[in-house]
């Protein structure tokens, strides 16, 4: 589909700044967009989701009805759903009735284990996923994630020599804390500078401390401050390599992977599936075992000039969007 001049209804999660970046990318490509979050995560919704599910279900329905009302007031050429965690069959059917001439596109940046969207595939003209294993299982196209221009702009802003050998920025989940602790211990032993920021909200932190899931000694690895995009960019600007620790139940490459590649930084990752990608270069990408961390000191001490990643421009946001709507 030629994007210039089109009107697109975009539904997706409010996730850091990525929904804003996608909206801006569509605008750059000549699209007029209307963005709706997949759900409005109010305090009432969060409480009811835990304490009174019928109310949470009603709030979801009210939000989806608002999207449908908006669809009735505008003639969209396409509907673009990212994840669509609350989009059930009934909602998509209603949306199709409101927009009988629109094409429907879905992109999944969660694995099937986290968000089972298999029953929606037949309702869309095109469905793509960031997870290569899910793509093969569901017989849909595999399309990795993207990086935004803020990261590629770092190519001309890098700190030389780098202040940090390795950097990690991410939210607390699954076994990330244990991996960060192992990496930190390794870096301490080998004299490598490791800058990490593992974010956790205050209430979950207090709850996990009280229940014993976290220990006081773990606090040195955690932060209740969420970093802004400029703060993340500052860390990347001063780093030689970026550590990626993917969710341990998924195989798809995280967006942090592509942000590191877009910034032309070396990558250390626990995701072995990166080795199947056309840009994989063992001199620039180190795959580690999340259970037995060995970072290979030579990966950081080798100062020879490395070749740029192969065709990494392909993963820029604008080109990613063009492939979604091809």
What percentage of the residues does DSSP assign to strands (E)?
A: 15-25%
- Overall average residue pLDDT: 93
Count of helix runs: 12
**Strand order within the widest beta sheet:** 2-1-3-4-5
Describe the 3D structure.
A five-stranded parallel β-sheet has the order 2-1-3-4-5. It has a three-stranded parallel β-sheet with strand order 6-7-8, with helices on both faces. Strands 9-10-11 form a three-stranded parallel β-sheet, with helices on one face. The chain is 35% helix and 16% strand. Strand 6 (166-171), helix 7 (176-190) and strand 7 (194-199) form a beta-alpha-beta unit. The termini are close together. The model has no long low-confidence stretch (mean pLDDT 93). It has helices spanning 18-28, 43-51, 53-72, 89-98, 132-138, 149-152, 176-190, 202-211, 229-237, 255-262, 298-301, 317-324; strands spanning 7-12, 32-37, 78-82, 103-108, 126-129, 166-171, 194-199, 222-223, 241-244, 266-269, 285-287. Helix 2 packs across helix 3 (53-72). By secondary structure, the protein is an alpha/beta fold.
Condensed summary:
The chain is an alpha/beta fold.
Provide tags for this entry.
alpha/beta; 5-stranded parallel sheet; 3-stranded parallel sheet
How do the helices and strands line up, and which of them pair or pack?
Blueprint: E1 7-12, H1 18-28, E2 32-37, H2 43-51, H3 53-72, E3 78-82, H4 89-98, E4 103-108, E5 126-129, H5 132-138, H6 149-152, E6 166-171, H7 176-190, E7 194-199, H8 202-211, E8 222-223, H9 229-237, E9 241-244, H10 255-262, E10 266-269, E11 285-287, H11 298-301, H12 317-324
Parallel strand pairs: 1-2, 1-3, 3-4, 4-5, 6-7, 7-8, 9-10, 10-11
